[in-house]
Amino acid sequence: MSDQPFRVRARYAKFGNLRFIGHLDTQRLFERALRRSRLPIRYTQGFSKHIRLNLASALPLGFISFAEMLDFWLNEPVDSLEILTRLQEALPAELRILELFPVSNALPSLQASLLSSDYKITLPEELMLESFQQKLEELISQPEIPITRRNKVVDYKPLIHEHPLLSDDSGMLTLEIRLSSTPQRNARPDDLLVRLGVDPADCVIERIRLNFSIEE
Amino acid sequence: MKENLQKTIEKILYSVEKPGRYVGGELNQVVKDWDSVALHWCLIFPDIYDLGQANLGLAMLYQVLNDQEWIAAERSFTPWVDMEAALREHEIPLFSLENKRALREFDILGITLPYESIYTNVLNTFDLAGINVLASQRTEEDPLLIAGGQACFNPEPMADFIDAFVIGEGEEVTLDVSRVYREWKAAGLSKAELLLALAHLPGIYVPSLYDISYHPDGTIAAIDPKHPEAPSSITKRIVAVLPPHPSKFLVPNIEIVHDRMSVEIMRGCTRGCRFCHAGMVNRPVRQRSVDEIIPVIECGLAATGFDEVGMLSLSSSDHTEILQLVRQVHDNFQDRTLSVSLPSLRIESFSLDLMDELKELKPGGGFTLAPEAATERMRAVINKPLDDEEFYQTVAKIFENGWRSLKLYYMIGLPTETMEDVEAILQAGIKVQQIGRQLVGKSVKIHLGIASLIPKPHTPFQWLPVENPESIQEKLDYLKAGTRKSGIKMSYNIPESTLLESWLSRGDRRLGAVIMSAWRNGAKFDAWNERDNLQLWRNAFAENQLNPDFYAYRERNLDEILPWEHIDIGVSKRFLQRDYQWSLQGRTRQDCRNVCFSCGILDTFGDQRPPETICYWGCP
């Protein structure tokens, strides 16, 4: 075992049935997949060893994503294509590794450098463009946007990073929005939808990009 | 499934707790093209996914059936109450996890009945599937509903709801049933003809082919086949050689109970504890060799990524190669962070060497022993003999080897039990604690687990009444006070929580109406709501003019026709009667691997016995 751990970063997609699997279960799923892969995985030191693994951000239950990121560590360098192949073989079909590359151990953790997430929301068919647009503009022009989650009120005003983009793609209304995703200030698009009078369960919510302070 | 239905389901999934229970999509799940197979099974475990998915029997049948190209086996579990409400609100019939097909669309529904408290869930599950719960009311178009599992050795309480029962082991008979079904379907005959054809299969019981008549006092007068071709008694099915162990285990995406890989190392037990249902109904003992088990673990770990292996059997330390097995597991897998659990160790049959090996595999964990009774007299009554001296020596060895926590299981409510026997349990706990304190110090943790006897069908105790709850409560109170004073932890079941089991486990066919009423009154998830549902059950008995005490507190005559009289487990009634009498005389039987007591197993199954090189049987 070489002393220098080999850090690997992967971007992955989570969709289909797997979007109903929560964050902690996803983490366990990756741990098992890594164990199955027979890659030279790095364990934490100490009495109770566990796999060193780091997911950038919790994806809320029911969301799909093609932009999730994870770091894990190996005991020695392995060719990226081989890691990707072996890991993919060990994963259920609806968790797909999209790209994978080694990164420097000196980089900060994914969580620490995550700033925001971009979401693409396919809105319910029956929604009218004009009235929804009006509601949206009204809401985001408020000086404060208080939203309650678990009895805690959070002002979403500073958490909405760019002006949301509403478009009509041949009758399909989609909303693209960039929201803060730091551990201290994490905004959820479904809460915003509820505030706009839309049931998130009627939408398809997709995370399309994670934005980090240090770009690779 | 139609697209809009799929959409509605997805919408529902956002609103329920743990939606991962209802979506499938696990690694190693088998999804076959629906139209590419001739026969569709749905295997149903009538409790939530979190509890059912770990069931090893389910995994075995899933693999046995799916290994056949012409069969697809899918899975379904009972939805939790929030999902049930949503399904009912949107009028969505219960569906399978793999192809998301309504259960009604399957040919055969295979229901696991592991214990009695699951019975109302079975009815609820059928109802959610849009299937009439009463077998007599179902149509030619409904699927075949077939049940198997340990509770089916007394099938009578569920006879109104199930078309056919598998009595005994399912690995081979499940394929026999599949073939009979395929031929029947091709021939285009009636359901009655299917049931009759199934009744010809060894190990299959079709309850609608039998009439039960009763004496005025409520005991059974006769169990008569209605059809000349229906056998007068149904002998359980066994597999003479344990079939290849499943290894392509499905890996749950959400956390479930027993989130580990399970390997059955041995089936059956030769010890003959008189209270033990599993020990009587799972004879003969058959074991898997080390050479068979190690590759199963190897493949299983590679296929699943689990970090824990449970080696299952009724008495692990009685496996003839247990030491080699544990050593080899240690040698082969020590480079991985693998923990191994080896439940059910017999105090007298595990050696110092085995303890050393276990220490290597599982540092820090607690140790569990089950003396079951604390006086040598009482241990003779239940036929679990053990010297006090040997017991305390073992306890000392456990502490000397570094364990700091010990759990001891005992039973109360045993026949001929006096307060002296109960006091001895507390004394044993205190003595064990003293030994522990001497050897490892103050931090030692002692835990007593107290269960009360529920006499089970097909055991030497099947004629006994359940001890009355007042007397059980008195004994529990005594133990509670004593353990609290000594700083010993104690867990136990309150008497009310075992009532349902005591009524149903030795029930007759008339209880079908009671189960039906209880379910109609709202009973479900009885194991989760023991106390709350009890009144529903009492009302259900009253509605049907039946007295629950008749089933729980009545001592049966030795020559009475019991509700399971026609179910032959291979162990003769004569043997059980004699063993019961021996029990009252305090006479023990030794491990029957050493000497045969002619329980009947070899008379029934001896002609199937394979050479030892193929599969070891425990019989002499």
End-to-end gap of chain A: 28 Å
Helix content, binned percent of chain A = 10-25%
Biggest interface and which pair forms it? A-B, 30 and 27 residues
Which secondary-structure class do the elements of chain B indicate?
A: alpha/beta
What is the oligomer described by this structure?
A: heterodimer
Helix coverage percent of chain B: 25-40%
User: Based on CA inertia axes, which overall geometry of chain A fits?
Assistant: elongated
Tally of discrete structural domains of chain A: 2
Weakly predicted, low-confidence segments of chain B: none
Strand content of chain B: 5-15%
Radius of gyration of chain A (CA) equals 19 Å
Strand order of the largest sheet of chain B: 2-1-3-4-5-6
How many strands, which pairing sense, and closed or not: the largest β-sheet of chain A? Answer: 8 strands, mixed
Q: Pairing-aware structural class of the strands and helices of chain A?
A: alpha+beta
Which tags fit this structure?
heterodimer; A: alpha+beta; Alpha-Beta Plaits; 8-stranded mixed sheet; two-stranded antiparallel ribbon; 22% helix; elongated; B: 620 residues; alpha/beta; Rossmann fold; 6-stranded mixed sheet; 4-stranded parallel sheet
Please describe what this structure looks like.
The complex is a heterodimer of chains A (216) and B (620). Chain A folds into two domains: 6-107, 2-Layer Sandwich (Alpha-Beta Plaits); 113-212, 2-Layer Sandwich (Alpha-Beta Plaits), CATH 3.30.70. Chain A contains five helices and ten strands; from the N terminus they run βαββαβαβαββββαβ. Chain A has helices at 23-37, 80-89, 110-113, 129-140, 189-195; strands at residues 6-14, 53-55, 64-74, 95-103, 114-122, 146-149, 152-155, 165-169, 172-180, 204-212. In chain A, strand 8 (165-169) and strand 9 (172-180) form a beta hairpin. In chain A, helix 1 packs across helix 2 (80-89). The longest helix of chain A has 15 residues, at 23-37. Chain B is 36% helix and 14% strand. Chain B is built from 21 helices and 20 strands. In chain B, strands 2-1-3-4-5-6 form a six-stranded mixed beta sheet, covered by helices on one side. A four-stranded parallel beta sheet of chain B has the order 15-16-17-18, covered by helices on one side. In chain B, helix 6 (173-187) packs antiparallel against helix 7, helix 10 (322-333) packs parallel to helix 11 and helix 13 packs parallel to helix 14 (419-440). The mean pLDDT of chain B is 93. At the A-B interface, helix 1 of A face helix 1 and helix 9 of B.
